Amino acid sequence: MFRDEDATMAMELAADPYVPTVGTLPANASQGEALAWVQRQRQHHIRGTGFAFSIADSESDRCLGQIGLFTRELGKGRAQAGYAVSPAARGRGVAAGALLGLLDFGWTIPELHRVELYIEPWNSASVRSAENAGFTREGLLRGHQEIAGVRRDMLIFAALREV
Ligand SMILES: CC(C)(COP(=O)(O)OP(=O)(O)OC[C@H]1O[C@@H](n2cnc3c(N)ncnc32)[C@H](O)[C@@H]1OP(=O)(O)O)[C@@H](O)C(=O)NCCC(=O)NCCS
Description:
Helix content: 25-40%
Structural class: alpha+beta
Strand order of the largest sheet: 1-2-3-4-6-5
Bound molecules: coenzyme A
CATH superfamily of the domain at 4-117: Gcn5-related N-acetyltransferase (GNAT)
Number of strands: 6
CATH architecture of the domain at 4-117: 3-Layer(aba) Sandwich
Largest sheet: 6 strands, mixed
Number of helices: 5
Radius of gyration: 15 Å
Distance between the termini: 29 Å
């Protein structure tokens, strides 16, 4: 779970040009805006919209990023995952490791059968992270959603519960 002190990492994420376009973290967030975002992460499971986790370094326990499992479609056996790693912590496979941990958690939810990722085709680091965590690329969804005011194609990846 996120701790208030993780607002420092959130401020680093808010300096990334892409992250603020796909979530609720304001671009170049102030300390107060970053803290409010951290506090919103803790509300997902209370509101029943999913689970948002701080990705912690296994040695230092320092917050390296965020990963979430969003469960609005849980009634249909599906959930969507999203993730972001602080720019300073990139380049060592943090997202793939966090995705594997998220799947371990997800499969403890009996109703869940399928975890989906929606990734823009240009986002090679995210594509590789998905593949490294064992997700399968299923196709391209054309004009699937609007990001920063532009309709975007999205690749869909999924992991299925092993039966
Ligand atoms: C996507 C993201 C989470 C990956 O961070 P990370 O875990 O540090 O990923 P890494 O830098 O370790 O790279 C993971 C893989 O992608 C590859 N990769 C990274 N950048 C790449 C690039 N520009 N082009 C091609 N491959 C790239 C790496 O070589 C590595 O592959 P490998 O392990 O097979 O060698 C991070 O870039 C991020 O937070 N981006 C902004 C938010 C975002 O895009 N979230 C995902 C939305 S779908």
